[in-house]
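Hey, does this match?
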Amino acid sequence: MFKKLDLINFLERFPPEKREKLTLAYISSYEKHMDVCKSALKNDEIEPLKHALHDLKSLSYTLGANTLGTLAEDTEEKALDGAHADALKQAPEIFPYIKNIIAIMNEYLATKHT
């Protein structure tokens, strides 16, 4: 699981004045992609799920959330390979990871750690 130290290590690459804005942007992106995934699952729509998974993969690997990146990548590959039922079945496994990252980011923001 992604930890607060992982977030701090990622954010230290950026000037202090940009860290809060960057963290808020990541939260917004994760929430948006999670909503798209949930909607796609509810409606059995593979195309929006593929796009959201692709973005989640990139976002997560960039952040250093490699477990989520790998899971999103594996699920995306299933969808791209035509194993739509498998992708739709596996996709909900990403939600706890996304919620964990968002919680850590909100905790980071609450501590005024900029």
Q: What stands out?
A: Helices lie at 4-11, 16-42, 46-63, 66-80, 84-90, 95-110. The chain has a mean pLDDT of 94. The chain has six helices and no strands.
